[in-house]
Design goal:
The complex is a heterodimer of chains A (304) and B (144). Chain A is mainly alpha-helical. Chain A has one domain. Chain A has twelve helices and four strands, in the order αααααααααααββββα. In chain A, a hairpin with a 2-residue loop joins strand 2 and strand 3. The longest helix of chain A is centred in the middle third of the chain and has 25 residues. About 12% of the residues of chain A have low confidence. Chain B is built from two helices and ten strands. In chain B, the strands form three sheets. A four-stranded antiparallel sheet of chain B has the order 1-10-3-8, with helices on one face. A four-stranded antiparallel sheet of chain B has the order 2-9-4-5, with no helix packed on it. In chain B, strands 6-7 form a two-stranded antiparallel sheet. Chain B is globular and about 40 Å long. The chains are: A mainly alpha (304), B alpha+beta (144). Strand 3 of chain A pairs parallel with strand 8 of chain B, so a sheet runs across the interface.
Amino acid sequence: MKGRSFIFLVFLVFVCFSCRNSSNKNSKFVFPEADSIPVGEEEKLSTEAIEEIARNISSPVEIANLLQSLAVPFSPDYLASSIDANKQTTSFDKAFTLGILGADLGYLNMYEKTNSSIDILSSIRKLAEGIRVGQFFDFETIKRLSLNKSNLDSLLFLSIDSYTQIDKYLRENDRGQLSALMIIGVWIEGQFLATQVMTEYPDPVLRDRIGEQKIILNDLLMLANPYCNRDPEFGVLCKDLQDIKEKYREIRITYTLGEPVSREVNGALVVEQTETSVVEMTDEQLAGIIDITKTIRNKLIANN
Amino acid sequence: MKKHFIALLVLLSAGFILYGQTTDPLVSNCVMNAGPDSKYLKDFRIQLAKAPAAGELRYKTQMSFWKNTKYKFSLCTAEDSKGELILTIKNDANQVVLSSYNPKTGKTYKSLEFVCNRSGIYKLNYDFKDGQQGSGVGVISMVK
């Protein structure tokens, strides 16, 4: 009898731990057919190509870092606070909103407004679980780090790494359309943040950063293109991205040449680039980008 | 029965310890050692067998870097590697803008900073010195 009890206890331990969230257990999850894409629809972009595009999108953490370096104060007005995770019903809404809130989380983390990030974390949890990728988001640890304000680097690492794993998992499991939506959501919210700050705190460096988004706009469109005819929601999103691209059409980015200058500082190599990029963008063009970004972002989150 | 409970306690402890280590310690150490002024952006986990012959760096990836930003690249090599992790970054014209390894002197750097003045998409090529077998992590952060 004792032997049986022991076997039962051992079994119980293994069952308990096998239920914990872990990226090593991907194969145990079965996803609904509705989320899957027929193979042919994704043929234009390989998994590696999508991964590279995802890396090219400017991180919201970088934008928040830029705002901090420009001494722009934190404002909750830029956040998508109106979003209610409980009202997101389709996979489209959930994945897109996950991207929007991911960018907001990056902004909050960088400004160390970590107490405010708890609500956003709860929404992210609901959305991630809604598209069955909650196992990649270590909510409890992120929440603990947020509340303790103990280590910003750990917090950034865990938050960004969770999104990276979700993105990778979606792509590798024929749900690339959700990965694309998440990445587009992150970009739109980052762009909204940058453009809104620009209206209140105009700065040439921020202005350039907004203009330089032209560099990755084609990549974003390439990411969305395979799914533009998938459903009406995607069709509208693709058109929105085309409209943004159109606003960037006349903006020019030119380059001046120069050799990098290297020096050693405390055992580390420091390289300063002397070649530069220069953005040629009129005030009208900038105003057009600010306006369309606000319109599209607000429309998309209002629908959610 | 007491023995069984002790055994259960040991198993539970082991479970908690394992559960707490879902992130590769090489990655977390490399992130933590990037320095107090740096903010984590991205990491690449690299595992390569010995190259059959000397040639280009084998692990190729890309990433956008933005003007007016200072990036830090930390290179961490696992202890059982035969060679040290190295990195070369090229611009879109395929010109080297930064390399952690100087083949003329043989000197390598585990930490590099890059003051970016040209926004664009850059090619990052990682390998282990002399095409050796190895395992390592490349962490990219921003510096204030």
